Amino acid sequence: MAAVAVVGYGTVGSGVVEIIETHREMLQKKTGKPVYVKYIVDIRDFENDPYGDKIVKDFSVVENDPEVETVVEAIGGRRVAYEFTRRALAAGKNVVTSNKELVAYHAVELFELAKANNVRYMFEASVGGGIPVIRPMSQCLAANEITEICGILNGTTNYILTRMITASLSFDAALKEAQALGYAEADPAADILGHDACRKICILASLAFGTQVLPEEVKIEGITNIAPEDIAFAAAKDCRIKLLGRAKKLENGKIYISVSPFLIPTSCPLSTIDGVFNGVMVHGDSVDDCMFYGRGAGKLPTASAVVADVIDTLRTCGDDRRIEWTAGDSIVSDCRKVAHRYMVRVNGNTDAAYAAAEKLFGEIEVIPCSSVSIFDGAFITAEMAEEKLLDTVEKLTAAGVEVKNQLMLM
Amino acid sequence: MAAVAVVGYGTVGSGVVEIIETHREMLQKKTGKPVYVKYIVDIRDFENDPYGDKIVKDFSVVENDPEVETVVEAIGGRRVAYEFTRRALAAGKNVVTSNKELVAYHAVELFELAKANNVRYMFEASVGGGIPVIRPMSQCLAANEITEICGILNGTTNYILTRMITASLSFDAALKEAQALGYAEADPAADILGHDACRKICILASLAFGTQVLPEEVKIEGITNIAPEDIAFAAAKDCRIKLLGRAKKLENGKIYISVSPFLIPTSCPLSTIDGVFNGVMVHGDSVDDCMFYGRGAGKLPTASAVVADVIDTLRTCGDDRRIEWTAGDSIVSDCRKVAHRYMVRVNGNTDAAYAAAEKLFGEIEVIPCSSVSIFDGAFITAEMAEEKLLDTVEKLTAAGVEVKNQLMLM
After folding, report:
1. Is the pLDDT at A401 greater than 90, yes or no?
2. CA pair distance A346, A396, nearest whole angstrom
């Protein structure tokens, strides 16, 4: 018998209990022993819960029960989750989590604590919800040097952008719709400002490049300033605007890492990922581009990834296949020095405005777009570093052409 | 030191040697020991080969060398590859392969032989080339009951169909182009008739449903009868035609399995997979839809999947995580009884033809398409089993309306 404890009985935690309890036969077949949820830890009361007999309020019951082999941490955040994870590992129990914040900030010390106690700390569900990403990257692509990761890592923002593109909604209208459907929270800041995607790209970059990258090192830009006019000009250029987490190895050995909206050509599979779906594209030196696609959030998809890790902890015997990284000097390069092409949207679709832009930017590619108002124009620049772009935008403004937005091309 | 032998020095075999020999440091980091290619077995002569000193002609050298831990079988086919795989496993060596034909036909006995000798038989590269599919399905989706697999599993046919769609080429012209570019062989039969995709969907179905499915049990239809008019009518219906390997659990507990061209709605991510790329969509009861995308063939992508398996065989110690299935009574249902909607293309875009069709098929949906000649019409039927469809098509022909093609909708 293998006893599992689920700590935190919210959306993900209840999904984990549901999958384990309704797939008992399958889990026994895959682990070689019966698997069951022995405890559910939550300080709240749950009346008439079908698994009410398993609920305890005190984590130390789990900590002190030698029968519990694996603890699922489904609390979230960095406070209680951090403390309980440390205590579980120290008590010789494997810990499985979907907590991207805790993994992004504290993975290295938790890996070390797990190793010292001969147990494992696993986190497949922390990125991409139910989509297999962590294990494929570390095992299936093990023969590759990974050079770039590029992902739509947040379903809320992808839903909003998709609705702006397909239904011509404004940002505000699309956000309200997402909230009404339960895809966005009442306080949507963590999603729309890019912080959620930031934690996930940090985890992927740390895994791919072997050294911890912290959220504070990442340049973050959300989607709040994307206007319908940006969407329209992007479409005229055969592109769609998506919020991407990107991490790319540079020639100087360091990495470019950012969370930003990008114009993606419609020929790129990432451009076709719509609604709440997520997708992660990985470039390896041998395999070229691979992409993993699916539901990046939600009760059962996320719980399915958690339970896959639970199965792994229960059937592993003497295997030292650890998925981890180490701390070290920062590997993050100065983003402002990395060159991109930009779409610059200006106030006025006139020859005079484009002539002024050409004078300052050098060669530009004007985007013809009859479907946007005559008060908007847009052009694509040559490759230039962000600091140069900002400097030139300032000069263009001084020359009397108002710049309304600038967005990078992928 | 871990010694590897590569048997068969063709495209994949030479890619494997290249990756192992140029990524030594990375392999050592991942396996905990230096990894090197000790032997390359091939009966052919290779003049001035950089790894010429490793080439031997006699497989028994490998078989009798206790230092060789893992053998890469990159011969292909079912004759010599079968014999050498058996001998290697019997000699206590792990075997890693990209040989879909051997896996599709002989996996069960090879799994048993591997287990009896306490070694492993691994085959990630046999489906989807470099795309991680086998391991994600069996490990990351372990908490799911998989209910459907649907994949673009053959790059040659996908290239041909893509060119027919995007460049309006005929089948013959697209095939010639694929041959000129090296994407299709001089004798393209195994690809264009669907046999290659068939072996792959057999492997995926066997893995997902736990019981061996043999290629002979699968209904196969290639792409040779797809005409530009089919492509045009599909486009008018917002669909693209792709060759799909499909395996789906039915209510009767058995499975539907086929290799056939399908009309796929452009809203489905599979429809956007173009050129030589492959994609596999998997539906699990908890995770919903996931998709894995990438290069389904080619020297380095395929070799990268082989080497990932090699790494796995070398670092596993005492782990019994076997990826396998067993033989058993056939789980394949009679395909002709499974209902689909069909696009039926007829000779003549006239009211009379559609009226005749409506009389026999019941309600139909005529596809308006001004870009196709007036000699072609097409309509979508309600759901019906294949045997009913064929019967009704016969009646329509008897009523004077020539049926030019019929294609299933996904």
Report:
1. yes
2. 10
The residue to which tokens 């022909």 are assigned: B397
Is A33 noted as a catalytic residue in this protein? no
CA dist., res. B36 & res. B45, Å (int): 22
| Residue B81 and residue B102 in contact, taking contact as beta carbons nearer than 8 Å | yes
- Interchain contact, B294 vs A291, CB within 8 Å: yes
Distance from CA of A8 to the nearest CA of B (A): 20
pLDDT confidence of residue A375: 79
Q: Does B238 touch chain A (CB under 8 A)?
A: no
CB–CB contact B291 A286 (8 Å): no
Indicate the average pLDDT of chain B: 94
Distance between CA B86 and CA A220 in Å, rounded? 55
- pLDDT tens digit string along A97-155? 999 999 999 999 999 999 999 999 999 999 999 999 999 998 888 899 999 999 999 99
- In the stretch 260-279 of chain A, residues with CB closer than 8 A to chain B read 267, 269, 272-274
Tens digits of residue pLDDT in B159-202? 999 999 999 999 999 999 999 999 999 999 999 999 999 999 99
| Distances, alpha carbon B287 to alpha carbons A301, B273, B350, in Å | 4, 21, 46
3-class DSSP state of A193: coil
Q: If DSSP codes are grouped into helix, strand and coil, which group holds residue A64?
A: coil
Nearest to B139 among A131, A300, A312 (CB): A312
Q: Which one of A38, A93, A100, A200 is the catalytic residue?
A: A200
Contact across the interface for A288 and B130, Cβ inside 8 Å:
yes
Read off the tokens for A268. Answer: 């790129």
pLDDT of residue B102 exceeding 60: yes
Provide the Cα torsion A132, A136, A138, A144; round to 10°.
-140
